[in-house]
Prior knowledge:
It contains 5 helices and 10 strands, in the order ββααβαββαβαββββ. The protein is of the alpha/beta class.
Amino acid sequence: MPKVVLFTATTLDGFIARPDGNLDWLIEFPNPDNLDYGYSDFMLGVGSIIMGKNTYNEILSFGFDWPYKGIESYVAASDPKFEIKSPDTFLVNGSLANLVERLKQEKGKDIWLVGGGKLITSFLNHHLIDRMVLTIIPTIIGDGIRLFPDKPKETSWALTECTSFKTGIVNLIYDKI
């Protein structure tokens, strides 16, 4: 059965973005060998994507074509008039649990939970995340959007894989216990 997988980068101090959503700390991190840190392999197993509206808007602000053409993407927003501007993308303002259940039954591939922080915590608190792939960037930014804001519920996870790269980046894969 497909899994809901949180695949995200975070700083050493636990932030996924600056307070305004900016990801400059991630984009500007030195990567002389152009490593993708497992992203391409991960994407081969993705059948659908879920993200929050702020994450969606941040991706659109990068100024290039929608990177997820051909993959059903869902944007969670409480505003039913929120405007979707990309192909294969749908607005969700109802039950995320129902969406996840439907996608798990319809799709043969995993569901990528992209972010942002509030959506991640909501998924965590409703026991909707099956696996977490955390790419730890050896940077401290001091302030921003936390990986798990808004009082996440206590949960336990099993470390199933750890991969380190010569850039100092580490991928940690955790599965729900």
